[in-house]
Amino acid sequence: MQHSQLCRLIDESLCPFTGDQFAVCLTKETEKNLLIVLSQLLRQIQLWTHDFDSDSDNGMVVKLPVCNNKCSVGSHCDDQNCLTKIVGDLILLLLIQSQYVQHLAGNILVAISDYIVASGGNWDEFMQSLCVCLELLISNALLHSLVRASTKALVSKHDSSSVIIALKSKLKNANWSSVACIIRVLRNILKCLKQDIDDQLLKVYLNSISYCLASVPWDSMDEVHVGQNGDALRKSSEDAFHAKAVELESSIVFRGTLVQLFCSLLNQSGWMEAAGGTLNKHPVICEISNLIPRLLTWCLCDGDSNNMCMSVYFRHKMLMLMVRLSFQIHLEYSLLVSWLQLMHEYFEDLLMQPMTQLESDQEDILEGSPFLVSVSDARIHNMTSRHLQRLAVFLFLRCSFSLVGLRDKTAGQCGCANLKSCLKSDSSSDLECYSRKKGLSELYGWLQGHLPAEMFIGCKFYSERCTSFSLSFLGLFIHEDDILFEVLLQLFHVSFGGKQQVCQDRCDDMLFHVSNLFNPIHLFHLFLAELHYDHQVLLDYLISKDTGAKAAEYLLRSLRVVCYSWNVFVEFSAEGKVTNVRDIHKSSGKKRKVLVDDSLIEGHLTSSSMKSKGIPLSLGKQCQKDLRHGSKHCRTTRLPFENAKDCLLSLKKSLQNLHKKSLFPYNPQVLLQRLTGFQELCLKQ
Asked: Which domain of life is it from (predicted)?
């Protein structure tokens, strides 16, 4: 009855526009009238939904007028035909060449999904109807693009339905723009579901999307979305230029919305797991994973180098998609190797981009979006390259260290006595050992691009350069909290040697350089220095809803390593000549650069500002004295160990106070125990 009422409303409202005289191109007057009708229709559906929600809360039942069989579906208006008719009529509007009509029609479909959820309607049939229409649109868009009739049929399962047969002919003018519109609708429906999670609704949604993705002939789509670029347009005749330009633009929009939908699906792993148990076994995740190489080809091989905005957008989205996917699938050897090859093919420039930020006055933050408008291409590049570099480096390290870390699962099966013998072995029969060799080889090759081996072997400044690189590496991630702790945790996959030695061969080089550049104790020291030894910043990380769990895990693992290698932690020094790349601006609120032993601090400092940032007041006064006497730099001889000790013990005290007052968001007992062990070692020092 509820579906019949909705069907009647939409049928009567849209009949003048979707009847036999349906036109893709509208006059201004007709478009205006249609927009008015769609706006009224949207408000009415939203009002009904609100009534259902309100009366449901009060235990009442909404009474709707009885359908008078005016639906054009047939003599009897059953639920399935009504829903299919409703969706079909609105999907038909997505073919109209008006972005305003498409936008309103899409909003109505989203409103109908809310209405069906609120009224307890047939959600399964609604989602099935939407996905069937998506398949029909893709099928007809392919037929139109490839200009042939041999394209694989997509919806044979539904061919017996008279409504589907009618829709096939109505949607014959489908293009990639209309496909993008319905994908956008599906993404907006997903956003609405996230606001009020229902396991069953979510499960139906994901299963419908998965079935649809599995039905799409991706091989045929390769012919459409590869090789379309500006050169092809310039070579076309004048008559065909406009048509090809429109098709290229709609193809780009389709690719963008498809990647957006996939990113939204992978946005929250806990939310996804509610749909059906183990996430990495859900078919929709497998479908997305299998499409990664194809999506990279579509999105990053366009060939039109002049469109920098779209290039930056697609690079950002594909990196985000792969990063999110890496947390939700089982990272097997073949997948990791494949992704590393893709990283070299599509993101090599980002991987080899210098770590150190060259422009000291350029703030290293993500300014809202990686694809800004109303600015020059050069400025877009400057503002986005650091963000893209962060994502690319993080994904590369995640894949490389995951290869190295595969040894933890089957260490007993490994035929090699230790990691070094595995690296020197030419045999690839042992997959676990070979994966370690492959992972470390990738890391070594990447490090060679930033720090050539000849700069290290026998070099008296080896430790200083290691610290400089580690500092630049931390500086790349320090401003993006969502992946900062993820990348730091990745570095625990490698075993670290405490003593330096002269490298004899390439295998020794690999282990030696990787273990020294990513030594967790040194990085922990530099991490605390980057925070100016301010325990309040650590506390903010721990109580943050976004970073709390990972920050706690990183502190626990770091403190464990510190307690096991106490002498290394106490004796750490930056060798006295490492300079910070961040300038201190007198009038800005930017973070100051306070480094480890013998670091240089530039700029004018005040006592109050130093005290608020965790810098010892005596050091601040000495710096001011040096500056007043004309010195450009000031020094501190305080050991990094002393600064780190004060920071961590202050953190312990704050945690205890908050926990005692029940103000800490979770039980920090394990972290307090680890900090207590740290304190006991400090007392013995």
From this structure: Eukaryota
Looking at the structure, tell me whether residues 558 and 447 fall in a common domain.
Answer: no
DSSP 96: S
Tokens 């020092």, residue located: 685
pLDDT mean across residues, the chain: 74
| Structural domain harbouring 482 | 334-359+370-516
Per-residue pLDDT tens digits for 333-352? 889 999 999 999 999 999 99
Q: What are the tens digits of pLDDT across the range 195-235?
A: 766 778 888 899 999 999 988 888 888 777 765 555 554 55
> What CA–CA distance (Å, rounded) separates 647 from 533?
5
Together in a domain, 379 and 465? yes
pLDDT digits (tens, 9 = 90+) for 403-437: 887 654 443 333 343 444 454 554 444 666 778 88
Question: Residue 153 pLDDT more than 80?
Answer: no
Number of separate domains in the chain? 3
Measured between alpha carbons, how far is 613 from 616 in angstroms, rounded to an integer? 9
Distance CA 210, CA 7 (A): 27
Q: Write 229-238 long-range contacts (CB < 8 A, 24+).
A: 229/302, 229/303, 229/304, 230/303, 230/304, 230/306, 230/307, 231/303, 231/304
- Are 298 and 342 part of one and the same domain? no
Asked whether the beta carbons of 97 and 175 are under 8 A apart, the reply is no
Say yes or no: 293 and 352 in one domain. Answer: no
Give me the mean pLDDT over the 573-579 stretch.
51
Domain-terminating residue out of 516, 531, 550: 516
> What pLDDT, in 10s, does the model give residues 618-640?
333 344 444 444 444 444 456 88
- Cα 108 from Cα 43, distance rounded (Å): 9
Beta-carbon contacts of residue 569 (< 8 Å; ≥ 6 apart): 521, 524, 525, 562, 641, 644
Tell me if 412 is assigned to some domain: yes
In a domain, 245, yes or no: yes
Same domain flag for 677 and 575: yes
33 compared with 267, residue with greater pLDDT: 33
Q: b/e string for 128-144 if b means 16 or more Cβ within 10 A? A: bbbbbbbbbbbbbbbbb
How many Å is the maximal CA-CA distance in the chain?
A: 96
The 10 Å CB-count burial string (b at 16+, else e) for 353-387 is bebebeeeeeebeeeeebbeeeeeeeebeebbbbb
Residue ending a domain, among 491, 516, 541, is 516
Whether residue 175 lies inside any domain: the answer is: no
pLDDT of residue 274: 46
Q: What is the DSSP string of 163-208?
A: HHHHHHHHGGG--HHHHHHHHHHHHHHHHHHHHT--HHHHHHHHHH
Q: Two tokens at 551?
A: 């920050």
CB atoms within 10 A of CB 568: 18
Please indicate, yes or no, if residue 594 is contained in any of the structural domains: yes
The pLDDT > 90 percentage for the chain reads: 28
In 3D, which of 283, 268, 406, 264 has the Cα closest to residue 335?
A: 406
CB 435 within 8 A of CB 406: yes
Handedness of CA 221, 225, 227, 228 (dihedral sign): positive
CA distance 379 to 292: 29
